[in-house]
Design goal:
The chain has one domain. It is about 45% helix and about 15% strand. The relative contact order is 0.17. It has about 160 residues and is of the alpha+beta class.
């Protein structure tokens, strides 16, 4: 199961009533991006993380320059993978920082296997709260439960010791 952080755009009340209201939400998976291990610059560009891409290119250029200037062995080129691992692990944080900078606010977290299931669970819970909060509950059968009808000494179920011992 994956954890998804939900971000909601800060919009006026008029925009919240439109049919496109749910399209503004962004779900960020809180997991390692396996595709970024090999294709880190492309993943950064796909998510439009321009500043992170520039820092990545400069860091990789500095590592290559250090390898060539210091005349390190060919195995030293494995150091180039360190930046890819950093991008793969830090991608959710980079995406969250970008969304907060663009004016989104964190609306909550959802645990689900896939994006569609996360969206379904989040909107069911969110819209369910609104529907329940606005509608009062009808009385159930009109009968009240009398507190004196309970036994004075209830039996404890489970592995708990009884109070008399």
């Amino acid at each position: 199961m994956a954890v998804w952080t939900v971000f909601e755009p800060e919009e006026g009340d008029a925009a919240r009533t439109t049919l496109r209201w749910a399209d503004g939400f962004v779900f960020v998976p809180e997991r390692v991006s396996w595709s970024a291990l090999l294709l880190a610059p492309l993943v950064l560009l796909r998510h439009r993380l321009w500043l992170a891409f520039i820092v990545y290119v400069l860091a990789q250029g500095a590592v290559i320059a250090a390898i060539l200037v210091l005349d390190l062995e060919d195995r030293a080129f494995a150091l180039l993978l360190v930046a890819n691992v950093a991008v793969a692990v830090g991608l959710p944080g980079l995406r969250r920082a970008k969304l907060v900078g663009k004016g989104y606010e964190e609306a909550g977290c959802v645990v689900a296997q896939k994006l569609e299931a996360a969206e379904q669970r989040y909107f069911d819970a969110r819209l369910g709260e609104v529907a329940v909060a606005r509608l009062p509950l009808p009385p159930v059968g009109g009968a009240r439960i009398n507190a004196a009808a309970r036994p004075a000494q209830a039996v404890v179920l489970g592995l708990f010791p009884e109070a008399a011992r």
